[in-house]
Amino acid sequence: MSTQILEREKSEVASSRTREPRRDEGTNCPDPASKSLAGCMGYPQSAAVIEIKDLRVVYRGKGTGQPDRTAVNGLSLSVQPGEVFGFLGPNGAGKTTTMNVLLGFVNATSGEARLFGTDVREPIARQRIGYLPELTYYYRFLSAEELLRFYARIFRIPRPETERRIDEVLKLVELEHARRRLIRTYSKGMQQRVGLAQALINNPDLLIFDEPTSGLDPVGRMKVREIIQRLKNEGKTVFFSSHELGEVETVCDRVAILHQGELKVEGRIADLVRQHQLNLEQIFLKVIGYV
Amino acid sequence: MDNIRAVAGIVIKELYRRKDFYVLFILTILICLVMASVHIFNDAKIVRYLKELCLLLVWISSLVIAITTTARQIPVERENRTLFPLLAKPLTRTELLLGKFLGCWIACGLALLCFYTFFGLLAASREHHWPLINYLQAGGLHWLMLGVVIAATLLGSLVFAAPSSNATIAFVVVTGILLLGRHLNKVALTLPEPRRSILYSAYYALPHLELFDVRDLIIHDWPPIAWGVCGIVTLYAAAYAALFLIAACLVFRRRALN
Predict the structure, then answer these.
(1) Neighbours of B103 (CB within 10 A)
(2) What DSSP assignment string belongs to A71-114?
(3) Which chain B residues in 70-99 lie under 8 Å from chain A, judged by CB atoms?
(4) How far apart are CA A145 and CA A197, in angstroms?
(5) pTM (2 decimals)?
């Protein structure tokens, strides 16, 4: 383990040249001596934060005569630490299914998926991630503060640390003024910001956002974009799906375009633009066969 | 265990922040108070009928609370999509189910405490004595019975799609067991084979919830049950609750959530 920690620390030193250092790296770690991310929680060391190899998900047809449906077919990709990765595709392309596999909601028919080198089926793989689903209603009978306290307890964050984190994330999503109000009284934008707050409560190293700006007004979208940008500056890895290609172009380092369950294009946005001599939207439309 | 307690805490918080329990409690109180004001045969000392009716109301109310609260737990979490951010955290599905069970069971225990305290006060105001051990045994066994019902309803909530169908089925089955469970073996004797064997199997396989119904201890002021018997009944309840919970965990473990 000590060799792993040393190796990880070396890679962190290297990556710190390209990103700003995190203020409180490793503070969720139960072992205060183990400040390195790989050492924390005893995770195996892995270069990639997300690693998907030859993933295939087939949904069985419900009822007699209904054919099986292949949602994801032979998907392989990896996301490196500190990257903001845009996961694109038209509706029904298999983006949400892939995310569901990563989060352990759906089992892969074949292939493998790993988070921080740990099989996604292990609950511990989810210790260092934050997840924001598309359109989610949180417990409406709780206040934002109570909701975050509940989630922090599941992450086993110590009480004083919990209170500090709640203050921090509520300030970040600008919900301090409404922290004691029941969530049922919140507007849609506020609920989405509570979602962001809960995704950040454990100070995660990887954030998985499923269409984070869906249904938000322009101001809400701008705020979410700012938060993703800020997370990027803090060196977090962000994996998100979106239909807002302008937004993806602004914040993402790399993108992958999925169509009918298969990976069609993957690479750095600048490289793709140069290679195809088209902008991202045109590349997207070309890949899905629209133009 | 901490995760289970955290989930249970949310279930309890939900129960006391929703209006269902208060409505049922106030309705039960009102009906009991009206009945308590009636002097049967113009004799204020006759309280047996009052106790019987009030305890029946308490039983019905507690079953309604237990079944409706439990039946909605997982389906509503799925429908409102609150299940997804929750399971995206280091919480196993087994922990979630056990937390839901514990939360519903404790919440029902708290509701029972309110009901029995009120009922005890009402009865004591007429009888001028309060057999505490009888109340403890009747309330305790009632709570254990609710544990079995909650575990079975939780399993039902994973099998049946809609909370309303699950609640209806659970209510019919529980009422059926309470009213007919003890007579199934006698009915079986009157039937030809293979129906006799089938009914006998059902008689031995079904949880005999009527064993937990010791309202007569309070109604007739009978002497308390031996504690050894209470212990055996507790083990019986624990075995059935565990069986239903294990089945629920097995059903939920590999289920795709999307």
Answers:
(1) 26
(2) EEEEEEEEE-TT-EEEEE-STTSSHHHHHHHHTTSS--SEEEEE
(3) 80-82, 84-92
(4) 10
(5) 0.83
Q: Does A141 touch chain B (CB under 8 A)?
A: yes
Backbone angles phi, psi at B161, to 5 degrees: -70, -45
User: Which segments of chain A does DSSP mark as H helices, in order?
Assistant: 2-16, 95-102, 144-154, 159-172, 188-200, 218-233, 245-251, 269-276, 280-287
Contact B88 A208 (CB under 8 A): yes
Cβ neighbour number for residue A147 with a 10 Å cutoff = 26
Domain that holds residue A8: 1-45
And the tokens for A251?
């914040």
Cβ atoms within 10 A of the Cβ of A284, count? 24
Task: For chain B, say whether A153 makes contact (Cβ under 8 Å).
Answer: yes
A230 touches chain B (CB under 8 A): no
Residue of A nearest to B80 (CA): A137
The count of domains in chain A is 1
Residue A34 resides in a domain? yes
Q: Do the domain assignments include residue A16? A: yes
Could you read off the pLDDT of A127-161 as tens digits, one per residue?
889 998 887 778 888 999 999 999 999 999 999 99
The structure tokens 């064993």 sit at B211
Q: From B148, B146, B16, B157, select the one nearest B97 (Cα to Cα).
A: B157
* Complex ipTM over 0.85: no
Look at residue A107 and tell me if it is in a domain.
no
What residues in A contact B17, CB-CB < 8 Å? Answer: 141
Q: Read off the pLDDT of residues A231-284 as tens digits, 9 standing for 90 and up.
A: 888 889 999 888 888 888 888 889 999 998 899 899 998 898 888 888 888 888
Instruction: Spell out the domain ranges in chain B.
Output: 2-253
The predicted pLDDT at position B40 comes to 63
| Bond preceding residue B194 cis, omega within 30 of 0 | yes
Q: Give the Cα separation of A70 and A67 in Å (integer).
A: 10
B85/A137 CB distance under 8 A: no
CA atoms of B213 and B209, how far apart (whole Å): 7
Q: How many CB pairs under 8 A join A and B?
A: 83
